[in-house]
Amino acid sequence: MPASETRSSGAASESVQLFSSRSDDYARFRPTYPEALFAWLADQCATTDTALDLAAGNGQASFPLTRYFRHVLACDASAEQLNAANDWPDVQRFVADAGHLPVQSGRLDLLVVAQALHWFATPDFFAQVRLALKPHGLFCAWCYSLLEVTPAVDALIQKLYGETLAGYWPAGRASVDAGYRDIQAPFAPIECPAFSLEADWEFAELVGYLRTWSAVKQWQKRHGQDPVAEIEAALSSTWGPADRRRPVRWPLHLLTGFPNR
């Protein structure tokens, strides 16, 4: 759910266009975050008045926050992403770049960034985080990389990811592969429980998800072919019957702390 990238204005514009063009697919095929994550985040906050989901995309992190916070804000650089879902109950959404947050200083109890920090993890961004959060406000960014299904399915996906699509991932993707361990946040991170995304998918959902990858779109633009289609038969063979449901898992990697302590 990426917002614009302040490291490079050209890359920012390209990434926003890329994810905006796939907003419906994101809403349909992207996995949902575990409820336990949001309950844990609320428990870490001194008060639960206002939370902001930055680079909110289609609201996958915004909606669960409404069960724990009185006011939930959601912003993204892409209006198309924010409009992918017509109804955002109890969420105030607005278009904003991560580098220019129109949020009152000291307002937020919690600021979350789901699968997007690698686009704008700059000193200027973290300075804005400090201003937006209350003195004991919590910051949490998380990411997930490759899914886990079965060894045979995983091997095909890893080859697509690391070989076919090598060189087609946007700048910053290496941070996701590193689980955000390479991002130097200006605060002491706190220990977090182990969380993961989980889904129960048929084969069509798997290939639909793979086609939401940004590098797939970039490869397709360059070669005029669908790289997922090139491995679809092999994937199908290892998956089994198309309507067979398999458990799918993505480990979450969190960067969390209290920037103003």
Automatic annotation (TrEMBL):
A Pfam match: Methyltransf_11
The UniProt record lists the keyword Transferase: yes
Keywords in alphabetical order: Methyltransferase, Transferase
GO biological process annotation, one example: methylation
Matches recorded under InterPro entries: Methyltransf_11 (IPR013216), SAM-dependent_MTases_sf (IPR029063)
Stretches assigned to the Methyltransferase type domain: 52-140
Name recorded for this polypeptide: Class I SAM-dependent methyltransferase
